Amino acid sequence: MPVDGSLAGRTFPPTDPYEVSREKIAEFARATGFVYAGQAAPATFPIVVAFAAMNALMNDPETGISLHRVVHGEQRFSYTRPVQPGDRLTATLTVETLRQIGVADIIGTRSEITDAEGAHVCTAFATLVHRGED
Amino acid sequence: MSTTSLQGGDVLPTQTYHVTRADLVRYAGASGDFNPIHWSDRIATSVGLPGVIAHGMFTMALAARALDTWAGAPGRVRELACKFTKPVVVPDDDEGVTVVVNGTVKDVTDDAAHVSLEVTCGDVKVLGASKAVLAR
């Protein structure tokens, strides 16, 4: 099933606020081999919040996306500041581009990650490749 | 090391990381990415992959780890980007695979150092167009 062409340009509702605990950062740091001493989270930590937004996209039955057919094509982060313990973060995902190459749909997303005050923390750009049935 | 000492043209010390299936399971739990292509050979091969592959974001996290090492402190990364050009296939054995991260300082300004990264696994480049900006 191809991905719904009307997805391009759609902005999904903001994710529920994510409370960043020191323990969660420490868990992520351990899983990726960082030595974590209690302050700034590893640079790719915001993917945890962006992923919640991407899951909303992938679990939406109307988009035609199946998680196990998705591979990550590209990722870019642009930070205003690192994530810190105590942050309360929200991600708002927009599908920026949608194009087809063969049986694959290439989905370009942008997730704006903001803190409890609404201030920008990081923008996560993810390109997802949805491999269609051969 | 610290970012203030970085100079354009610097070749940064090679960082080598070992990756096993257990690391992928741990990363799935820590990140919330439970895509079965990262833990089930059956599902991975059904969608045309050679076998279970590492999360692209796990490999990117290793690149970020190298950056923290080179920067001498956490929280210095202002930009980080890559393409996931080749999968890191992680076999179901005790040895796993080795991911190697190399970096070169392209140029520095008063407040930033631009770093080009090369990330390989078994001599195959697994991340493309991989680059970062570190605050100085």
Question: Can you give a write-up of this model?
Answer:
Helix content of chain A is 18%, strand content 37%. Chain A is of the alpha+beta class and 134 residues long. Chain A has one domain (5-131): Thiol Ester Dehydrase, Chain A (Roll). Chain A has a 5-stranded antiparallel β-sheet. In chain A, strand 4 (104-114) and strand 5 form a beta hairpin. The relative contact order of chain A is 0.26. The mean pLDDT of chain A is 92. Chain B is an alpha+beta fold. Chain B has a single domain (3-20, 54-135), classed as Hotdog Thioesterase (Thiol Ester Dehydrase, Chain A, Roll), CATH 3.10.129.10. Chain B is built from 3 helices and 5 strands, in the order βαααββββ. In chain B, strands 1-3-4-5-2 form a 5-stranded antiparallel β-sheet. Chain B is elongated. Classes of the chains: A alpha+beta (134), B alpha+beta (136). Chains A and B meet through helix 1, helix 2 and strand 2 of A and helix 1, helix 3 and strand 2 of B.
As residue ranges, the low-confidence spans of chain A are none
Task: State the end-to-end CA separation of chain A.
Answer: 11 Å
Kindly report the oligomeric state of this protein: heterodimer
* CATH-defined architecture of chain B: Roll
Topology at a glance:
The complex is a heterodimer of chains A (134) and B (136).
Chain A: E1 18-19, H1 22-32, H2 47-59, E2 70-79, E3 88-101, E4 104-114, E5 120-131
Antiparallel strand pairs in A: 1-3, 2-5, 3-4, 4-5
Chain B: E1 11-19, H1 21-31, H2 41-46, H3 56-71, E2 77-84, E3 97-108, E4 112-121, E5 124-135
Antiparallel strand pairs in B: 1-3, 2-5, 3-4, 4-5
